[in-house]
Amino acid sequence: xxxxxxxxxxxxxxxxxxxxxxxxxxxxxxxxxxxxxxxxxxxxxxxxxxxxxxxxxxxxxxxxxxxxxxxxxxxxxxxxxxxxxxxxxxxxxxxxxxxxxxxxxxxxxxxxxxxxxxxxxxxxxxxxxxxxxxxxxxxxxxxxxxxxxxxxxxxxxxxxxxxxxxxxxxxxxxxxxxxxxxxxxxxxxxxxxxxxxxxxxxxxxxxxxxxxxxxxxxxxxxxxxxxxxxxxxxxxxxxxxxxxxxxxxxxxxxxxxxxxxxxxxxxxxxxxxxxxxxxxxxxxxxxxxxxxxxxxxxxxxxxxxxxxxxxxxxxxxxxxxxxxxxxxxxxxxxxxxxxxxxxxxxxxxxxxxxxxxxxxxxxxxxxxxxxxxxxxxxxxxxxxxxxxxxxxxxxxxxxxxxxxxxxxxxxxxxxxxxxxxxxxxxxxxxxxxxxxxxxxxxxxxxxxxxxxxxxxxxxxxxxxxxxxxxxxxxxxxxxxxxxxxxxxxx
Length: 490
Known about the structure:
Layout: E1 8-14, H1 20-34, E2 37-42, E3 45-50, E4 59-66, E5 69-76, H2 86-105, H3 112-119, H4 135-138, H5 154-171, H6 181-187, H7 192-195, H8 202-205, H9 213-234, H10 236-257, H11 267-281, H12 288-309, H13 318-340, H14 345-368, H15 374-392, H16 403-428, H17 435-464, H18 470-488
Antiparallel strand pairs: 1-5, 2-3, 3-4, 4-5
Helix pairs in contact: 1-2, 5-9, 9-10, 9-11, 10-11, 10-13, 10-14, 11-12, 11-13, 13-14, 15-16, 16-17, 17-18
């Protein structure tokens, strides 16, 4: 990959009274014990090839001896931005095995010719001092992170899917810089009134669409970075399972916290992968020396994004971020047994299955219990409109209506229905609805009270048969007209 140099670890080892031949013989025996293979590149250099289970974490250890000092350099041969301490671990294991052999059997001197016959096949090696290039060195194109490879398969696929969806949105006419809410909803954004009313698929589609090109670019950068670090360590299946579950949990968390906000983007799922990463860093699967710099990087990333989300009008969905992060951390803990013992296939299958089922059940329970009184609110507002129309019928009285008929309609119909609407609004305010709707309700309640004041003055005017209240009625009507205009957004 083009993100940095090949991970490596270098250490010196003093041979003391040991000859190069004896040292190379011990290396050969240690490699046999460990299941590794060896080769000789020159008279004073030997190469050890480390093969890990499942073809992961393969490394090449280059050992050269000069003036009684062996320089041991281990480097990764896979697409890795970091080696999680595996290079140091391999060198330490090799040297410890050599020490054990020396202690148990002592030193056995053999001539170089016999050693060469044992270790070296002249047909397949050119006796140069040049080490074969690692996969990291072979892949040097700046856009190589776009190419799927062993240990880096799911990440580029997710990158392609998110990008293709964004391109399709743009082609359909959606603004690439600042798409409107309706466009996002049309493409599957997460929204309480829709998602909780049967459109559950928005829990998934929402983390494949983005709110503008910068939103996409920032999320894809974070995805590629964590994918390079984590996918090879988890394997493609566990990585994909964790990503999807974290995305769904993030969507549900966003629904639970945000009432009238259309949410979208992969950041919740990506935060989940950082949560998985965090759980692995602070537990035993990682070599101690690899933990500290990674832990600092994760804390900075998480803290920066969460603090940014606290800014007013930031547009950042911290509820989704936190939900994804916590979910990922729990999944990471569930994965630890399989990570510690990768040779046990049952654990590789069982851990993602158990994590998926447990989190799916808990997420489903939370999803079904998300409060959503918006349908009831809409129903009550329709009743409000009906009562309002009944109250306004007083102005439709026939011209020959008697005084008593007018007074009856003003008091027993008009004022009665306005009071009924005030009771209706008081009931609506007990529903679980967003603050903006509650503010609107207070405006409607004030509107009803103004109508009642106006009707009372009209009642007095008709009853007393004079225009003494005309000016007051006109002023109240002006305020009523302004409220109607504001509510319509004119």
